[in-house]
């Protein structure tokens, strides 16, 4: 890039300062901030939108709201008028991201990648505006690179620098195998930034090494280096561990509206404000005013309902969010939701533990018995304490915990 363009100074207006504030909201780190301010000022002066990139590898069929922290930031920057690039790493998925891992990640098959990529696209568009999103796949430029291009790319970084990466360093120290192909992952992610000429790349805090690689390679290829913006990892429902399916503390963005609403309502009051910052599209001024009202005596439950409705409406609809609120109220009063699954079972008289298992309200009879011991099972709203209970033919409303219901007709 022409050095004159890079160093030219443009005025920093109030609009630029406001855009910087939007960028920094909830962010962990912006590197380097001065460069980003210069890019924003140049964009405003020239009318040329900046290119802002987020890459996700489709390693699983769906995503939870923890993944949407960076997507929300992308949407905020999209609303400022910049070009947002949602990059699906169909090529890099074949390598596997070594970030934070102490072993080699098994590569996905082409079919797994194709199915997951389509799901990611559909789910990302629940947050991003499809009409203003540039959807790309990194196989577009990675496949044509070929063996010669890969060798030329690998020549632009040293093994010593690669081994500075924490996960590689720790694995090498522990004598844990590191496959040569794992070194290619950060190189290929960095090359994505070269191919897309990105001005800013977003990622989680665990992606910092890969994001910095993009800056290095852009400079190597004579481009103006991108800035990087890292976002924190969202705490899950427990408020302690990061949100994760394996830890069971997550909200999937394809979960039904009632479950989604109830899960948001289950978080602690302190965690609620953290979620407001990272997940809500309300302005920081609105959130600050709401927090002040709560500190002044307003019931924090009201603020939590607002957050639960906003998140539920985003992935379903405003009507579904209203219905989910009513469903939550009914359940909290011990009532039965208007719509519950209905199923027919045979084998009367049937033991209660077996019924819970067959109705998919418990994964096993032993778990069903544990739920009964814990007082978590109701039949027609009456608690069940007898694990030996046998139900005669008839129709029953069976409840497990606060959220699981089924209308079972037993014959």
Automatic annotation (TrEMBL):
Q: Which InterPro entries match?
A: aa-tRNA-synth_I_CS, aa-tRNA-synth_Ic, Rossmann-like_a/b/a_fold, S4_RNA-bd, S4_RNA-bd_sf, Tyr-tRNA-ligase, Tyr-tRNA-ligase_bac-type, Tyr-tRNA-ligase_bac_2
Which residues belong to any copy of the RNA-binding S4 domain? 350-411
What EC class does the entry list? Answer: ligase
Please provide the record's keywords in A-Z order.
Aminoacyl-tRNA synthetase, ATP-binding, Cytoplasm, Ligase, Nucleotide-binding, Protein biosynthesis, RNA-binding
* SUPFAM superfamilies referenced in this protein's UniProt entry, alphabetically: Alpha-L RNA-binding motif, Nucleotidylyl transferase
**What's its EC?**
6.1.1.1
Mitochondrion: present as a keyword of the record? no
Q: Which GO terms describe its molecular function?
A: ATP binding; RNA binding; tyrosine-tRNA ligase activity
Write down the chemical reaction(s) this protein catalyses.
Answer: tRNA(Tyr) + L-tyrosine + ATP = L-tyrosyl-tRNA(Tyr) + AMP + diphosphate + H(+)
Tell me which NCBIfam families the record gives: tyrS
State its role.
Catalyzes the attachment of tyrosine to tRNA(Tyr) in a two-step reaction: tyrosine is first activated by ATP to form Tyr-AMP and then transferred to the acceptor end of tRNA(Tyr).
Quaternary data: Homodimer.
Provide the protein name. Answer: Tyrosine--tRNA ligase
Which species?
Ramlibacter monticola
């Amino acid at each position: 890039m022409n050095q004159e363009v890079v160093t030219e100074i443009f005025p920093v207006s109030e609009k630029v300062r406001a855009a910087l504030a939007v960028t920094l909201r909830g962010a962990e780190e912006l590197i380097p901030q001065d460069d980003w301010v210069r890019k924003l000022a140049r964009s405003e002066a020239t009318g040329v939108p900046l290119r802002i990139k987020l890459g996700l590898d489709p390693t699983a069929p769906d995503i939870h709201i923890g993944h949407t922290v960076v997507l929300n930031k992308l949407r905020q920057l999209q609303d400022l008028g910049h070009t947002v690039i949602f990059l699906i790493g169909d090529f890099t998925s074949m390598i596997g991201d070594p970030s934070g891992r102490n072993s080699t990640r098994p590569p996905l098959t082409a079919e797994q990648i194709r199915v997951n990529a389509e799901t990611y696209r559909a789910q990302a568009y629940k947050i991003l505006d499809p009409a203003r999103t540039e959807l790309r796949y990194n196989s577009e430029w990675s496949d044509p690179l070929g063996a010669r291009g890969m060798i030329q790319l690998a020549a632009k970084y040293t093994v010593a620098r690669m081994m500075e990466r924490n996960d590689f360093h720790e694995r090498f120290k522990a004598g844990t195998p590191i496959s040569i192909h794992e070194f290619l992952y950060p190189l290929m992610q960095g090359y994505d930034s070269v191919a897309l000429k990105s001005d800013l790349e977003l990622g989680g805090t665990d992606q910092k090494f890969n994001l910095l690689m993009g800056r290095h390679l852009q400079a190597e290829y004579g481009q103006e280096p991108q800035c990087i913006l890292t976002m924190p990892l969202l705490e899950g429902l427990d408020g302690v561990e990061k949100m994760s399916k394996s830890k069971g503390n997550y909200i999937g963005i394809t979960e039904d509206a009632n479950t989604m609403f109830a899960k948001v309502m289950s978080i602690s009051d302190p965690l609620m404000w953290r979620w407001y910052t990272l997940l809500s599209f309300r302005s920081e001024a609105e959130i600050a005013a709401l927090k002040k009202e709560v500190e002044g005596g307003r019931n924090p439950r009201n603020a939590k309902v607002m957050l639960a409705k906003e998140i539920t409406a985003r992935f379903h609809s405003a009507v579904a969010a209203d219905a989910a609120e009513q469903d939550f109220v009914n359940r909290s009063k011990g009532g039965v939701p208007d719509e519950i699954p209905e199923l027919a079972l045979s084998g009367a008289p049937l033991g209660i533990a077996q019924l819970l298992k067959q109705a998919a309200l418990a994964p096993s009879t032993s778990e069903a018995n544990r739920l009964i011991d814990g007082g978590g099972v109701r039949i027609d709203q009456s608690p069940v304490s007898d694990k030996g209970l046998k139900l005669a033919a008839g129709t029953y409303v069976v409840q497990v915990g606060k959220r699981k219901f089924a209308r079972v007709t037993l014959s």
